[in-house]
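Researcher: I'd like a structural prediction for the single chain below. Treat it as a standalone chain; there are no partners to consider.
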Amino acid sequence: MRRGGFALALALAGCGGPQSALDPWGPQAERISELSILLFTGGGLILTLVVALTALAVWAPPTWRRRVGTLRFVIGGGIVFPAVTLATLLVYTLGTSRALALLSGEVPLRVEIVGRQYWWEMRYPDGAVTANELRIPRGRDVELTLTSGDVIHSVWIPNLHGKLDMIPGRANVLRLRADRAGVLRGQCAEYCGRQHALMAFAVVVQEPSEFAEWLARQAEPIPAPANAMEEAGMRIFGEAGCGACHAVRGTPWQGRIAPDLSRVGSRLTLAAGALPNNIGTLAGWIAATQDIKPGNAMPAYAHSLSGEEMLALATWLNGLR
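Model: Treating it as a single chain, here is the predicted structure.
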């Protein structure tokens, strides 16, 4: 009984959480969930019928087998039933696909997401740029324009919508809405290289007023260093050449090769979901990027910066909120 209960609990655990298609947070995900349940249920019933007929053919008395072996039964069960069932599912699926593309009529929040090896760039209205974290307001339609800067990627936020590819030279559009505030997880769903499995992002659904404050803050210059250690960290950032790849709003460093770090201290994770975000993990990432996420484009600084320098740099970055 204990083993059975544990297996049941383990199975039910997959029905919820921050990355589950069976725990819809918005209308698009609800449509997909309803379609999934319909297909799972229909498939299960048809499988049961096929198994029952197979058992009948193998073990039933000859009189029973003759009853289900008539031409009428073969045409009805083998041609009419599949044709009607599949046609009905096709019509329902097409209706669901159309509903997924419709918005409520209000002006949506438009965000451009660019997939890169192996991180995400988010571009908001008014020029705000972030990385590896999508923030959206609760209850408002959102239109995501999806592109790629290198290879084919695929965005998947199971609690909000299905998968959609990001193709170089092409823009695909994904429309969604979140009706609950909280934190979800998005994932690259198309194999894109060595670190595909470590290419995730947080989806933070905020109350509209909280989101408006956050978005306004993204457009402002970064705060000045609060103490001597942060001042040292800012200086080291420039001396180490970090600004050649990274952008920091309000400074001369406007690199576009790597994630924008203007408000990196406020993000939940580092390295596209690979690490939680705090001073210790920031310092560890700077020191050993290739040990944590081999093959990513950022060099490790363990041999070029001292421990004190990396700690100062991490402290300054952690203060960018």
